[in-house]
């Protein structure tokens, strides 16, 4: 057997595999011999069918199978040994005069090669990395939300002129097919409509104009269940039937509340509650800031790292890569959609390979162990039983989808730490509200 590679250009090559009779003859003969031992042919005892009859009936199919197995094994081994960094899979070239009755065979495969490129991790202006500080005002808001969430509802006979009055009722308009129950605070209504509601009682029906009903027009989407496209032009009369009027009495900051929020006895005072809120908020907001930084670095690398791809090869490969063969037009469209993702995969692969960042099995196991313990802790379950934790970890590692998820998360964590240490950055301190406003270009926290 002889395997050679012809370099067409920097991104394309043709691999030729020449197979001689000596490469496959013994394998074919062995399979034919086994067929003879088990073949059931009328007029012959099992194991005594003439080899010529076996060869005539099964020889061509067995030859085809054995040559193809030899071909695939040899091609894959060659790619590994020659350390060819290919994209997609090798594509067999059509051979019009191919003859399976010959004793030697030659196969040709087109391959697309990954491009060589360098990365610039030092952007001229640097990439902004936010460090989010947790201010007392944010903790105050969280405490207030908790007290309201776990507070008691006190029913009122009528709607009082108080911001915290909660009104539950149903909106109805037959023409627009509006029929939805909603709960909202009196303060959500516009000033004019607030006056309409004050003094009304349970069972009263109000005729309301949707335009200008709430301070925020988008509240109509949630409370009337209409689409975003319709809400901006909605100007109809709806009937609102008042079903409940309540005031929410805030919960006391006591041990009963603390034990609803955390494992029993772990938080015993408002000071400790605020510390837990700060710690959890810091963790969540740091995750958001890190994700933003990761996204920014990814966009920077994809947009500034220039290299060519074997586009025509990849489009041809895409036509037959899936379960259903694509048309040329469909493959071209699929390539356009996936090109950016492929470029980042190559960039990510280079970073992981050049810096030895690919996760090892031990790292995956340790990460899965930490993940399981964190989950158990969240549900107030003990984590000191190593055999129990190891059992769960073992099941995770045997689940292919879970392994892929854990591997991807670990890769992202490694990339994040690598970028923090190696990419030119500008650290910017901000409150969470400032972070949201700057990153998402909004005034809403």
TrEMBL record:
InterPro entries: Trig_fac, Trigger_fac_C_sf, Trigger_fac_ribosome-bd_bac, Trigger_fac_ribosome-bd_sf, Trigger_fact/SurA_dom_sf. The keyword Isomerase applies. The keyword Isomerase applies. Signal peptide: none annotated. GO terms for biological process: 'de novo' cotranslational protein folding; protein transport; protein unfolding. Residues 1-146 form the Trigger factor ribosome-binding bacterial domain. One of its GO terms (molecular function) is ribosome binding. It holds the Pfam family Trigger_N. Keywords: Isomerase. SUPFAM superfamilies: Triger factor/SurA peptide-binding domain-like (SSF109998), Trigger factor ribosome-binding domain (SSF102735). This is Peptidyl-prolyl cis-trans isomerase, trigger factor. The lineage of its organism: Bacteria, Pseudomonadati, Bacteroidota, Flavobacteriia, Flavobacteriales.
């Amino acid at each position: 057997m002889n395997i050679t590679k012809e370099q067409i250009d920097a991104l394309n090559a043709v691999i030729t595999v020449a197979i001689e009779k000596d490469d496959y003859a013994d394998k074919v003969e062995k399979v034919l011999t086994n067929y003879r031992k088990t073949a059931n042919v009328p007029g012959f005892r099992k194991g005594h069918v003439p080899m010529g009859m076996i060869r005539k009936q099964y020889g061509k199919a067995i030859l085809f199978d054995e040559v193809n197995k030899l071909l695939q094994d040899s091609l894959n081994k060659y790619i590994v040994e020659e350390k060819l960094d290919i994209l997609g899979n090798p594509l067999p070239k059509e051979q019009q005069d191919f003859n399976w009755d010959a004793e030697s065979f030659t196969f040709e495969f087109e391959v697309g090669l990954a491009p060589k490129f360098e990365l610039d991790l030092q952007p001229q202006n640097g990439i902004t990395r936010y460090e989010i500080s947790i201010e007392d005002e944010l903790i105050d808001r969280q405490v207030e939300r908790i007290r309201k969430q776990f507070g008691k509802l006190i029913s009122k006979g009528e709607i009082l002129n108080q911001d915290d009055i909660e009104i539950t009722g149903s909106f109805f308009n037959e023409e627009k097919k509006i029929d939805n129950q909603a709960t909202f605070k009196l303060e959500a209504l516009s000033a004019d409509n607030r006056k309409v509601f004050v003094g009304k009682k349970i069972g009263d029906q109000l005729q309301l104009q949707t335009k200008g009903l709430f301070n925020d027009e988008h509240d109509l989407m949630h409370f009337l269940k209409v689409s975003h496209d319709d809400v901006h032009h909605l100007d109809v009369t709806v009937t609102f039937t008042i079903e409940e009027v309540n005031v929410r009495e805030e919960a006391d900051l006591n041990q009963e509340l603390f034990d609803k929020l955390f494992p029993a006895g772990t938080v015993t005072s408002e000071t400790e509650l605020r510390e837990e809120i700060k710690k959890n908020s810091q963790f969540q907001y740091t995750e958001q800031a890190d994700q933003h930084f990761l996204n920014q670095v990814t966009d920077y690398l994809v947009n500034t790292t220039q290299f060519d791809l074997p586009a025509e090869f990849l489009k041809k490969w895409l036509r037959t890569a899936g379960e259903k063969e694509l048309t040329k037009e469909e493959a071209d469209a699929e390539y356009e959609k996936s090109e950016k993702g492929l470029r980042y995969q190559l960039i990510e692969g280079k970073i992981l390979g050049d810096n030895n960042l690919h996760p090892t099995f031990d790292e995956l196991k340790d990460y899965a162990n930490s993940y399981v313990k964190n989950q158990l802790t969240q549900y107030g379950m003990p984590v000191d039983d190593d055999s129990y934790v190891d059992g769960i970890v073992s099941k995770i590692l045997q689940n292919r989808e879970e392994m892929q998820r854990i591997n991807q998360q670990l890769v992202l964590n490694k990339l994040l730490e690598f970028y923090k240490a190696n990419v030119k950055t500008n650290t910017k301190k901000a409150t969470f509200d400032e972070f949201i406003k700057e990153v998402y270009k909004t005034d809403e926290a």
